[in-house]
Amino acid sequence: VHHVEPDHSGSIQRILEVCNGSVEVLCHPFAVKLLQSLYTVSFKFRVVKDGEEFSIGDKTLKFLYAPWLHWPETFITYILEDGVLISCDAFGGFSIPKGIFDDEVDITGYLPYVRKYIIDIIGQNSDYIIKALDKLRNMNIHPKVIAPAHGLVFRKNPGIIVNYYEIIAKCLPEGDKITIVYDSMYGSVEKAIVHTIKRLEELGMKYIAFKFTDLQHSSISEILSEIADCKALIIGVSTYENDLFPYIDYLLDLMVKKIRIGKPILLISSYGWSRIASVKLREKLSETNFKIFESIEFQGQPSSTDLQKIDESITRLINSIK
Ligand code: FEO
Prior knowledge:
The protein is an alpha/beta fold and 322 residues long. The protein has eleven helices and 13 strands. The structure holds MU-OXO-diiron. The site of MU-OXO-diiron has 8 residues, from α1.
């Protein structure tokens, strides 16, 4: 059992019942209690050590601990004779690709699902991706095939998924994309953001925008994925119940946990009678890698002067990230 999370271990109870308990379960020491906590069948455990080799038939399995990819008990298996790395959650991706192998599908179309998977599933532990990559390199393990439990198996070019994992674990920007996220209750923030988008288009900037309004709730996981590789963020937020608008508040909590490299933020904020949202946002991000580049705040709807300030601030933001 590489990993106890039920998408990996969920069938073990049935398998052991079919085998009448005659098999050993090989697992990380941490996995023993976790498995016992989830399943009622009795187990015969055999704890594997990091680097241990195990012969079965004409194959040699080398077990390598891969802590926090995605739980502390996770390990991966390298088949020495074939150069195949059975990598569990690591090197996986979301989506249901049209093929099983990397040579059967459009990799460019698949990689954004890998980015979303990394950030949403192991983003908080992305340091451990780097550690695992270093470990493989230091052990001179360069798999010919990488077979994760989720998504494509890489047999043509495993280097693609290794390199992409490194880029995303480090949250390195891919191009000059600006990610915009905003809420709007009365259309005031939206008016400013619509203007912002028009300005970005005039300047030929690549952007992606997400919103939380009465008509649309964007996917938090999509937003996090698009923050991971952006160059800068534009956040539009309104004051709600003497605080940040709740979805933006929640998003910021996850963003700080899952994205290790901060991005500059242009803050656009509307308030009724007190500038609460911007104050709370600054407080929330004060001890993080995310820094407020500039902020534009207005009472109610943005005036033409406010829109002019947005134009000027966007120009400065773009100059700062180029
Ligand atoms: Fe951590 Fe695929 O589960």
